Structure formats: structure tokens, C-alpha cells
Amino acid sequence: MYTGLKHIHTFLPYLIFIALAAALILSLMKRNNSGPLDSLTKRFSLFTLIFTHTQILLGIVLYFVSPITKNAMEDFGAAMGESAIRFYAVEHVLTMILAAVAITIGNSKAKKAATGKKAYNSILLYFTIALILILIRIPWHVWPGL
């Protein structure tokens, strides 16, 4: 179970990046439109939200079955002294949850925006914050193909 979840948790960010990049590019191109949010941008924003929430749920399950975090919980104080364990036990998890919150807020504000301009700007702001948070806390050393 752990290995399968870990593989899915490693693959899903590729889909998140594609949807996130598409939503950002579309919003950047259309940010001055006064009309309502277009359906393509809405879809990519929604896909980003769905993929991110799925990733967070998988990550939470992995957090509780991972041997790294199980070891960290045995002596949390000592684990905080080791940067690799602290990364997985605290930094990665909290940063990714904050990124998911930013994506959720951005998607929600875009849906509720009175004009397309406000909607596109909400996506640009919150999705960019999420992208930065994701990029700074991905464990790049374990990513396949890098």
C-alpha cells in the first residue's frame, strides 16, 4: 500500500503543474477582459483544485504510514534536529497544505468575482503564491527523471 500511494503521490504533481500552468497562462493572457471568466480557465482552475486536494489527501495518508514520519514521531525533538527528517515531518506537509489553501481561495474568489478581470487576477495572485510554495518544498532529490 505504501509503495503504491507513494508512486501516485509522485505522479500527481505533474498533473497539478500542467493544470496550474494552464490556469496561470490563461489568466495572464485574459487578465484585462471585462467579461465573465471563460469556461476554459474555469476548467483548468477546477482541475488544479481537484488534483491538489487529491494530492493533499494522499499526502496525509502517506504521512501516517510513512516510515520516515513514524520514526520522527517516536522522538520528535531529536527529529527536529535532523534537517531531512524535519523536512518530511513538518516543512513539506505544512507548506503543501498552505499551497492547497491558496489554490482553494484563488478558485473560490475567481468563481465569486463580479468581473472577469477580478477573477483572472484572483487566479494569478493565489495560484502564483501556491506555485512558489510548491516549488520551494518539493523534495526534488527524489523526483523521477531529475
Any overview of this molecule?
- The protein has six helices and no strands.
- It is elongated and about 55 Å long.
- The chain has helices spanning 2-30, 39-65, 67-74, 76-80, 83-112, 116-137.
- The model has no long low-confidence stretch (mean pLDDT 92).
- The relative contact order is 0.16.
- With 146 residues, it is mostly helical.
- The protein has one domain (2-142).
- Helix content is 83%, strand content 0%.
Features:
single chain; 146 residues; mainly alpha; 6 helices
How many β-strands, per DSSP? 0
User: Between the first and last Cα atoms, what is the distance in angstroms?
Assistant: 25 Å
Tally of individual domains: 1
Q: Please compute the radius of gyration using only Cα atoms.
A: 17 Å
Helix content class: over 70%
Q: Helix and strand string, N-terminal first?
A: HHHHHH
Unreliable stretches, pLDDT < 50, 5 or more residues? none
Strand content: under 5%
Query: What's the overall geometry?
Result: elongated
Number of helices: 6
Helix/strand class: mainly alpha
Mean of pLDDT: 92
Largest sheet: none
How would the blueprint of this fold be written?
Blueprint: H1 2-30, H2 39-65, H3 67-74, H4 76-80, H5 83-112, H6 116-137
